[in-house]
Amino acid sequence: MTNLNDAGASSSAYEPKVLAKKYRISLEDAQNIIAQYGSDRKAADKAARRIAA
Predict the structure, then answer these.
(1) Rounded to two decimals, what is the model's pTM?
(2) How far apart are CA 27 and CA 8, in angstroms?
(3) Is 15 helix (H, G, I), strand (E, B) or coil?
(4) For residue 39, is it within any domain?
(5) How far is it, in rounded angstroms, from Cα 34 to Cα 43?
(6) What is the number of structural domains in the chain?
(7) Is 25 exposed, middle or buried (0-12, 13-18, 19+ CB in 10 A)?
(8) Cα–Cα distance list, 4 to 1, 13, 45, 52 (Å)
(9) Which domain holds residue 26?
């Protein structure tokens, strides 16, 4: 049975190293994205894809 109080990994903020490695962007860019979007992984992913392109 699932715990409804457990929002899962998608609600926690990325670690800068993980985001940087996933999208092959600089650690500094990843830190800036996380500072701007916080725990909104969908928005952080979108921003990282824009930088990586």
Answers:
(1) 0.76
(2) 24
(3) coil
(4) yes
(5) 10
(6) 1
(7) buried
(8) 9, 19, 25, 35
(9) 12-52
Tokens found for residue 48? 């990282």
pLDDT digits (tens, 9 = 90+) for 20-48: 999 999 999 999 999 999 999 999 999 99
Distances in whole angstroms, Cα of residue 30 to Cα of each of 3, 6, 11, 23, 51: 31, 26, 17, 9, 10
Dist CA 53 CA 9 (whole Å): 26
Q: How far apart are CA 24 and CA 12, in angstroms?
A: 21
Query: What region, left, alpha or beta, does residue 8 occupy, with left being phi > 0 and alpha being psi -120 to 50 degrees?
Result: left
